[in-house]
Specification:
Alpha-Beta Plaits; alpha+beta; Formiminotransferase-cyclodeaminase, Chain B, domain 1; 7-stranded mixed beta sheet
């Protein structure tokens, strides 16, 4: 995927989870579209349903979804379909989700374009839901549209309230109907139980937002759930959709399912993700368990491993982060070219004829080294019997310094990118009034970025001093020189970033903003000089 290009996710759910040739045929149709990356194919025999997940540009994901539907139209006949999962049609639901450099309006446009073309090509009814819905509140919720399922569609589609958004207002027995929409990222998450379907559904009623009725709502907002039985796995599941994981998280519903099951003398035996999950959702769960168990883990891979273990995500199949976490799969967390280069390559690039990378990128590197050396001093103190009484203080210092180091590293490439964007903006055509206006706006935006990146370096560094002072007072004295180099590196990083702010600041035309940034940068730089001296003096005075 090109840097800066709009990236959307599409997650079509087809009503076939048993016939391998159908499942693979639909997958092949998706993969046949250039610009689309098929991330996951998740069939369920009991549900008789397969969830496909792919990403690409707006036009490409629409085209891939249509390709898949044409294959499904030939191979799926809903008149004989049976399965545990509620469904309305051969393509039951097809949401479009903004992932990167895209907004919900982009997803809504994709949903409408897909729905229009699907109805025209295959002559089937299509309903719009969630953010794409236009025909009243009763058409927003997927469960509301799906109520009555395929078996009740022939009668429902004749009602005035249920005329399709696209396609014929008539029952198509072989296809049924499709629900298409735009929504934020949804986590499809199942909690595994050794119980009956009815017992699992009882748990689902307790946790889901809808609850049992309007008078008996469930515990969690943004949570939909039902109970079902997986004969192929010989267990039941609470099948959960978390429509906003920032409101209700995986660990919250998992722990609540465990608590309810325990009260019913039932066993929860892990959980399962269907499709992909955002990195933040995994880290949120990891931090929950770190806090509740008083664990100290800063490494991202270890945090994910903790979340996988505590949530039992390996219970049905092996959880592979590189295949399940969306940022890892599509490369949204990839390091830039400078950060990916060798140390030798980076230094040689600095010393070349090219004007970028320059002092701003170097300042970010030096600052990151300073924070890293501070974290190292903490690690060389933490967990050692000799310094056991200092563990709490070391935890409090290491965490922020480790985080600062990780925040600073991407700014190495960001500074060079900002400079290149600024020079590109200056080179834009300016022959017509329209071109002049476009160039002026591009220069304004790029100018602000050339200041914001080094200012971010300064702000991150500014938060490190209090933690370095803890290490200066209590850290392992054998790391004295490391801490000294770290402090001086942090100060140098601030100095370099400060000079980049100053040299680029005149290009900002907003005088009030320019004055505000200048005042903040002056204060952070002055503080860095003062704090570095205080810290070095404190370390020099220590003998043990």
């Amino acid at each position: 995927m090109a840097a800066g290009a709009a990236l959307l996710e599409c997650v079509p759910n087809f009503s076939e989870g048993r016939r391998k040739e159908v499942i693979e045929g639909i997958a092949a149709a998706v993969k046949s579209v250039n610009g689309v990356q098929l991330l996951d194919v998740d069939p369920s025999v009991s549900a008789n349903r397969t969830v496909y997940t792919f990403v690409g540009g707006p036009e490409d994901v629409v085209e891939a979804a249509l390709h898949a539907c044409r294959v499904a139209h030939q191979l799926i006949d809903m008149s004989g379909h049976k399965g545990e999962h509620p469904r309305l049609g051969a393509l039951d639901v097809c949401p479009f989700i903004p992932v990167a450099n895209a907004c919900m309006a982009d997803a809504v446009r994709c949903a409408n374009e897909f729905a229009r073309r699907l109805a025209a090509d295959l002559h089937v009814p299509v309903y719009l839901y969630q953010d794409a819905a236009v025909k009243g509140p009763h058409r927003v919720s997927l469960p509301s549209i799906r109520a009555g399922e395929y078996e009740g569609l022939a009668a429902k589609i004749k009602l005035a309230d249920w005329v399709p958004d696209y396609g014929p207002a008539e029952f198509v027995p072989s296809w049924g109907a499709t629900v298409c929409g735009a929504r934020p990222f949804l986590i499809a998450y199942n909690v595994n139980m050794l119980s009956t379907k009815e017992q699992a559904h009882r748990v689902a009623l307790d946790i889901r937002e809808q609850g049992r009725s309007k008078d008996e709502p469930g515990k969690f907002k943004s949570c939909r759930a039902i109970g079902w039985y997986l004969s192929d796995e010989n267990m039941a599941q609470v099948s959960i959709n978390l429509t906003d994981f920032t409101v209700t998280s995986m660990h919250q519903v998992y722990e609540e399912c465990k608590a309810i099951s325990q009260s019913l003398s039932l066993a929860v035996v892990g959980s399962q993700l269907v499709g992909l999950v955002p990195l933040q959702a995994m880290l949120d769960s990891a931090r929950h368990y770190m806090h509740s168990e008083n664990l100290f883990i800063t490494d991202e891979a270890q945090q994910i491993r903790l979340a996988v273990e505590r949530l039992g995500l390996d219970s049905v199949e092996k959880f592979r982060p590189e295949e399940r976490i969306i940022e890892y799969v599509v490369g949204l967390n990839k390091r830039g070219p400078l950060l990916s280069s060798t140390l030798d390559g980076f230094v040689r690039e600095l010393g070349s004829r090219s004007s970028a990378p320059g002092g701003g990128s170097a300042a970010a590197v030096i600052a990151a080294m300073g924070a890293g050396l501070g974290a190292m001093t903490g690690w060389m103190t933490y967990g050692k019997r000799k310094f056991e009484s200092l563990d709490k203080q070391m935890r409090a210092a290491i965490g922020p310094l480790d985080a600062a180091m990780k925040e600073l590293l991407p700014l190495v490439d960001a500074d060079t990118d900002a400079f290149k964007a600024y020079t590109s903006a200056l080179g834009l055509a300016k022959s017509t009034e329209e071109e002049k206006a476009r160039r002026t706006e591009a220069v304004r935006v790029a100018s602000l970025q050339t200041v914001n990146v080094p200012l971010s370096v300064m702000r991150i560094c500014d938060k490190c001093w209090e933690h370095l002072h803890v290490l200066a007072a209590h850290g392992n004295i054998n790391c004295k020189s490391d801490l000294q180099v770290g402090a001086k590196s942090l100060e140098t990083g601030v100095f370099g970033a400060y000079q980049n702010v100053r040299i680029n600041l005149p290009s900002i035309t907003d005088t009030d903003l320019r004055a505000k940034i200048s005042s903040e940068a002056d204060a952070v730089y002055t503080r860095a000089v003062q704090q570095c001296k205080l810290l070095l003096d404190a370390v020099d005075e220590r003998s043990t």
